Amino acid sequence: MSDTAGTARGRLADARLYLCTDARGRQGDLAEFLDAVLAGGVDIVQLRDKGLEAAEELALLEVFADACARHGKLLAVNDRADVAHAARADVLHLGQGDLPVPAARAILGDDVLIGRSTHAEAEAAAAAVQDGVDYFCTGPCWPTPTKPGRPAPGLDLVRYTAGLGTDRPWFAIGGIDLANLDQVLDAGARGVVVVRAITEADDPGAAAADLAKRLREAR
Ligand SMILES: Cc1ncc(COP(=O)(O)OP(=O)(O)O)c(N)n1
Ligand SMILES: Cc1ncsc1CCOP(=O)(O)O
Ligand SMILES: [Mg+2]
Protein backbone atom coordinates (compact mmCIF):
# COMPACT_ATOMS: atom_id res chain seq x y z
CA MET A 1 0.00 0.00 0.00
CA SER A 2 1.35 3.49 -0.84
CA ASP A 3 1.98 5.91 2.03
CA THR A 4 -0.69 8.29 0.65
CA ALA A 5 -3.48 5.66 0.59
CA GLY A 6 -6.52 7.01 2.47
CA THR A 7 -5.06 10.53 2.67
CA ALA A 8 -6.32 13.47 0.64
CA ARG A 9 -3.36 13.06 -1.73
CA GLY A 10 -4.13 9.36 -2.06
CA ARG A 11 -7.77 10.09 -2.86
CA LEU A 12 -6.67 12.70 -5.40
CA ALA A 13 -4.44 10.14 -7.11
CA ASP A 14 -7.46 7.84 -7.42
CA ALA A 15 -9.91 10.55 -8.51
CA ARG A 16 -11.42 10.37 -11.99
CA LEU A 17 -14.54 12.57 -11.86
CA TYR A 18 -14.36 16.17 -10.64
CA LEU A 19 -17.49 18.31 -10.52
CA CYS A 20 -17.65 22.09 -10.40
CA THR A 21 -21.09 23.35 -9.45
CA ASP A 22 -22.67 26.62 -8.47
CA ALA A 23 -24.88 26.85 -5.41
CA ARG A 24 -27.90 25.89 -7.54
CA GLY A 25 -29.92 28.89 -6.37
CA ARG A 26 -33.42 27.71 -5.93
CA GLN A 27 -33.06 24.56 -8.03
CA GLY A 28 -34.14 22.12 -5.35
CA ASP A 29 -32.23 21.09 -2.29
CA LEU A 30 -28.43 21.55 -2.45
CA ALA A 31 -27.66 18.79 0.06
CA GLU A 32 -29.90 16.40 -1.86
CA PHE A 33 -28.11 17.27 -5.12
CA LEU A 34 -24.70 16.77 -3.51
CA ASP A 35 -25.71 13.45 -1.95
CA ALA A 36 -26.93 12.23 -5.34
CA VAL A 37 -23.83 13.17 -7.32
CA LEU A 38 -21.36 12.03 -4.66
CA ALA A 39 -23.16 8.71 -4.32
CA GLY A 40 -23.13 8.54 -8.13
CA GLY A 41 -19.34 8.64 -8.26
CA VAL A 42 -18.08 12.23 -8.18
CA ASP A 43 -14.68 12.12 -6.43
CA ILE A 44 -14.07 15.84 -5.93
CA VAL A 45 -16.69 18.59 -5.76
CA GLN A 46 -15.91 22.29 -6.11
CA LEU A 47 -18.21 25.18 -5.29
CA ARG A 48 -17.66 27.47 -8.29
CA ASP A 49 -20.04 30.39 -8.01
CA LYS A 50 -18.24 33.53 -9.03
CA GLY A 51 -20.84 35.99 -7.71
CA LEU A 52 -20.84 34.94 -4.07
CA GLU A 53 -19.76 37.16 -1.17
CA ALA A 54 -17.17 35.44 1.04
CA ALA A 55 -19.57 35.01 3.98
CA GLU A 56 -22.22 33.46 1.75
CA GLU A 57 -19.63 31.18 0.14
CA LEU A 58 -18.44 30.04 3.57
CA ALA A 59 -21.97 29.25 4.69
CA LEU A 60 -22.63 27.24 1.52
CA LEU A 61 -19.33 25.42 1.94
CA GLU A 62 -20.63 24.00 5.23
CA VAL A 63 -23.30 22.19 3.22
CA PHE A 64 -20.63 20.96 0.78
CA ALA A 65 -18.30 19.90 3.61
CA ASP A 66 -21.04 17.92 5.35
CA ALA A 67 -21.89 16.13 2.11
CA CYS A 68 -18.23 15.37 1.35
CA ALA A 69 -17.75 14.02 4.88
CA ARG A 70 -20.82 11.77 4.51
CA HIS A 71 -19.40 10.30 1.31
CA GLY A 72 -15.66 10.41 2.02
CA LYS A 73 -15.02 12.70 -0.97
CA LEU A 74 -12.81 15.77 -1.47
CA LEU A 75 -14.09 19.33 -1.09
CA ALA A 76 -12.58 21.99 -3.35
CA VAL A 77 -12.76 25.79 -3.16
CA ASN A 78 -12.24 27.96 -6.23
CA ASP A 79 -9.89 30.95 -6.38
CA ARG A 80 -9.68 32.03 -2.71
CA ALA A 81 -7.07 30.68 -0.29
CA ASP A 82 -8.63 32.54 2.65
CA VAL A 83 -11.99 30.92 2.04
CA ALA A 84 -10.39 27.49 1.52
CA HIS A 85 -8.59 27.89 4.86
CA ALA A 86 -11.69 29.05 6.72
CA ALA A 87 -13.79 26.25 5.23
CA ARG A 88 -11.14 23.62 6.04
CA ALA A 89 -11.34 22.53 2.41
CA ASP A 90 -9.24 19.68 1.07
CA VAL A 91 -8.42 21.46 -2.19
CA LEU A 92 -7.92 24.97 -3.56
CA HIS A 93 -8.14 25.47 -7.33
CA LEU A 94 -6.17 28.33 -8.88
CA GLY A 95 -6.35 29.65 -12.45
CA GLN A 96 -3.50 31.37 -14.28
CA GLY A 97 -4.73 34.76 -13.11
CA ASP A 98 -5.48 33.77 -9.54
CA LEU A 99 -3.19 33.89 -6.52
CA PRO A 100 0.30 32.51 -7.32
CA VAL A 101 0.83 29.03 -5.89
CA PRO A 102 3.59 30.04 -3.38
CA ALA A 103 1.30 32.75 -1.97
CA ALA A 104 -1.53 30.25 -1.57
CA ARG A 105 0.86 27.75 0.02
CA ALA A 106 1.98 30.39 2.52
CA ILE A 107 -1.65 30.71 3.63
CA LEU A 108 -2.63 27.05 3.49
CA GLY A 109 0.48 25.12 4.48
CA ASP A 110 1.32 21.74 2.97
CA ASP A 111 -1.77 19.70 3.76
CA VAL A 112 -4.28 21.42 1.47
CA LEU A 113 -4.09 20.22 -2.13
CA ILE A 114 -3.60 22.90 -4.78
CA GLY A 115 -4.74 22.61 -8.38
CA ARG A 116 -3.93 24.78 -11.36
CA SER A 117 -5.69 25.56 -14.65
CA THR A 118 -3.69 25.30 -17.88
CA HIS A 119 -4.71 26.32 -21.39
CA ALA A 120 -1.51 25.89 -23.41
CA GLU A 121 1.36 23.44 -23.74
CA ALA A 122 3.86 25.59 -21.83
CA GLU A 123 1.39 26.04 -18.96
CA ALA A 124 0.70 22.30 -18.75
CA ALA A 125 4.40 21.45 -18.86
CA ALA A 126 5.06 23.97 -16.07
CA ALA A 127 2.17 22.75 -13.90
CA ALA A 128 3.41 19.19 -14.23
CA VAL A 129 6.62 20.09 -12.38
CA GLN A 130 5.92 23.27 -10.40
CA ASP A 131 6.54 22.97 -6.64
CA GLY A 132 3.39 23.17 -4.57
CA VAL A 133 1.04 22.02 -7.34
CA ASP A 134 -0.80 18.76 -6.61
CA TYR A 135 -2.85 18.46 -9.82
CA PHE A 136 -3.67 20.46 -12.91
CA CYS A 137 -6.42 20.76 -15.50
CA THR A 138 -6.05 21.20 -19.25
CA GLY A 139 -8.59 22.71 -21.58
CA PRO A 140 -11.14 23.68 -22.62
CA CYS A 141 -11.46 20.61 -24.83
CA TRP A 142 -14.41 22.31 -26.54
CA PRO A 143 -15.67 25.91 -26.34
CA THR A 144 -18.09 26.15 -23.45
CA PRO A 145 -20.64 28.70 -22.25
CA THR A 146 -19.52 27.89 -18.70
CA LYS A 147 -16.25 29.74 -19.38
CA PRO A 148 -17.19 32.37 -21.97
CA GLY A 149 -14.36 33.93 -23.95
CA ARG A 150 -11.88 31.18 -23.14
CA PRO A 151 -10.46 29.84 -26.47
CA ALA A 152 -10.39 26.05 -26.65
CA PRO A 153 -7.00 24.41 -27.31
CA GLY A 154 -8.99 21.23 -27.86
CA LEU A 155 -7.93 17.62 -27.61
CA ASP A 156 -4.44 18.47 -28.94
CA LEU A 157 -3.62 19.83 -25.49
CA VAL A 158 -4.94 16.65 -23.87
CA ARG A 159 -2.73 14.58 -26.20
CA TYR A 160 0.24 16.82 -25.42
CA THR A 161 -0.35 16.54 -21.67
CA ALA A 162 -0.68 12.76 -21.83
CA GLY A 163 2.63 12.74 -23.72
CA LEU A 164 4.36 14.46 -20.79
CA GLY A 165 4.07 11.15 -18.96
CA THR A 166 3.73 12.94 -15.65
CA ASP A 167 2.83 11.09 -12.45
CA ARG A 168 1.06 14.22 -11.22
CA PRO A 169 -2.74 13.88 -11.41
CA TRP A 170 -4.34 15.93 -14.20
CA PHE A 171 -7.84 16.33 -15.60
CA ALA A 172 -9.27 17.41 -18.94
CA ILE A 173 -11.97 20.11 -18.79
CA GLY A 174 -14.39 22.00 -20.99
CA GLY A 175 -17.43 20.80 -22.88
CA ILE A 176 -17.06 17.20 -21.75
CA ASP A 177 -20.11 14.95 -21.51
CA LEU A 178 -20.95 11.28 -21.82
CA ALA A 179 -21.28 11.54 -25.61
CA ASN A 180 -17.72 12.81 -26.16
CA LEU A 181 -16.00 11.25 -23.13
CA ASP A 182 -14.45 8.45 -25.20
CA GLN A 183 -12.68 11.04 -27.40
CA VAL A 184 -11.18 12.60 -24.26
CA LEU A 185 -10.10 9.20 -22.95
CA ASP A 186 -8.68 8.23 -26.35
CA ALA A 187 -6.63 11.45 -26.27
CA GLY A 188 -5.01 10.19 -23.08
CA ALA A 189 -6.94 11.68 -20.15
CA ARG A 190 -7.80 9.49 -17.19
CA GLY A 191 -9.78 12.09 -15.26
CA VAL A 192 -12.22 14.83 -16.25
CA VAL A 193 -13.79 17.94 -14.78
CA VAL A 194 -17.39 18.65 -15.75
CA VAL A 195 -20.00 21.28 -15.00
CA ARG A 196 -23.07 21.10 -17.25
CA ALA A 197 -22.87 17.36 -17.94
CA ILE A 198 -24.02 16.88 -14.36
CA THR A 199 -25.55 20.17 -13.22
CA GLU A 200 -27.89 20.41 -16.22
CA ALA A 201 -28.82 16.72 -16.33
CA ASP A 202 -32.42 15.76 -15.63
CA ASP A 203 -31.05 13.24 -13.14
CA PRO A 204 -27.67 14.53 -11.87
CA GLY A 205 -27.00 11.41 -9.80
CA ALA A 206 -27.52 9.14 -12.79
CA ALA A 207 -25.39 11.42 -15.00
CA ALA A 208 -22.56 11.24 -12.45
CA ALA A 209 -22.90 7.46 -12.25
CA ASP A 210 -22.75 7.08 -16.06
CA LEU A 211 -19.63 9.25 -16.32
CA ALA A 212 -17.95 7.57 -13.34
CA LYS A 213 -18.65 4.09 -14.71
CA ARG A 214 -17.15 4.94 -18.11
CA LEU A 215 -14.09 6.53 -16.48
CA ARG A 216 -13.50 3.50 -14.23
CA GLU A 217 -13.96 1.07 -17.14
CA ALA A 218 -11.28 2.97 -19.08
CA ARG A 219 -8.60 2.44 -16.43
C1 LIG B 1 -11.03 21.90 -11.44
C2 LIG B 1 -11.05 23.23 -12.12
N1 LIG B 1 -10.40 23.37 -13.30
C3 LIG B 1 -10.41 24.57 -13.90
C4 LIG B 1 -11.06 25.63 -13.33
C5 LIG B 1 -11.01 26.99 -13.96
O1 LIG B 1 -10.25 27.90 -13.16
P1 LIG B 1 -9.97 29.37 -13.71
O2 LIG B 1 -9.23 29.23 -14.98
O3 LIG B 1 -9.34 30.17 -12.64
O4 LIG B 1 -11.43 29.92 -14.01
P2 LIG B 1 -12.61 30.14 -12.96
O5 LIG B 1 -13.24 28.82 -12.68
O6 LIG B 1 -12.04 30.73 -11.71
O7 LIG B 1 -13.55 31.04 -13.66
C6 LIG B 1 -11.72 25.43 -12.11
N2 LIG B 1 -12.40 26.42 -11.48
N3 LIG B 1 -11.70 24.22 -11.52
C1 LIG C 1 -14.27 26.49 -15.48
C2 LIG C 1 -13.76 26.08 -16.81
N1 LIG C 1 -12.46 26.29 -17.15
C3 LIG C 1 -12.17 25.83 -18.38
S1 LIG C 1 -13.53 25.17 -19.15
C4 LIG C 1 -14.51 25.47 -17.77
C5 LIG C 1 -15.96 25.15 -17.69
C6 LIG C 1 -16.34 23.75 -18.04
O1 LIG C 1 -17.72 23.64 -17.98
P1 LIG C 1 -18.59 22.62 -18.84
O2 LIG C 1 -18.25 21.27 -18.34
O3 LIG C 1 -20.02 23.02 -18.54
O4 LIG C 1 -18.24 22.84 -20.28
MG1 LIG D 1 -10.08 30.99 -10.95
Automatic annotation (TrEMBL):
Residues 17-198 form the Thiamine phosphate synthase/TenI domain. The keyword Metal-binding applies. Pfam families: TMP-TENI. GO terms for biological process: thiamine biosynthetic process; thiamine diphosphate biosynthetic process. Mg(2+) binds at residues 79, 98. GO terms for molecular function: magnesium ion binding; thiamine-phosphate diphosphorylase activity. 2-[(2R,5Z)-2-carboxy-4-methylthiazol-5(2H)-ylidene]ethyl phosphate binds at residues 144-146, 175. 4-amino-2-methyl-5-(diphosphooxymethyl)pyrimidine binds at residues 46-50, 78, 117, 147. Signal peptide: none annotated. It catalyses: 4-methyl-5-(2-phosphooxyethyl)-thiazole + 4-amino-2-methyl-5-(diphosphooxymethyl)pyrimidine + H(+) = thiamine phosphate + diphosphate; 2-(2-carboxy-4-methylthiazol-5-yl)ethyl phosphate + 4-amino-2-methyl-5-(diphosphooxymethyl)pyrimidine + 2 H(+) = thiamine phosphate + CO2 + diphosphate; 2-[(2R,5Z)-2-carboxy-4-methylthiazol-5(2H)-ylidene]ethyl phosphate + 4-amino-2-methyl-5-(diphosphooxymethyl)pyrimidine + 2 H(+) = thiamine phosphate + CO2 + diphosphate. PANTHER family: THIAMINE-PHOSPHATE PYROPHOSPHORYLASE, THIAMINE-PHOSPHATE SYNTHASE. Condenses 4-methyl-5-(beta-hydroxyethyl)thiazole monophosphate (THZ-P) and 2-methyl-4-amino-5-hydroxymethyl pyrimidine pyrophosphate (HMP-PP) to form thiamine monophosphate (TMP). This is Thiamine-phosphate synthase. It comes from Streptomyces bungoensis.
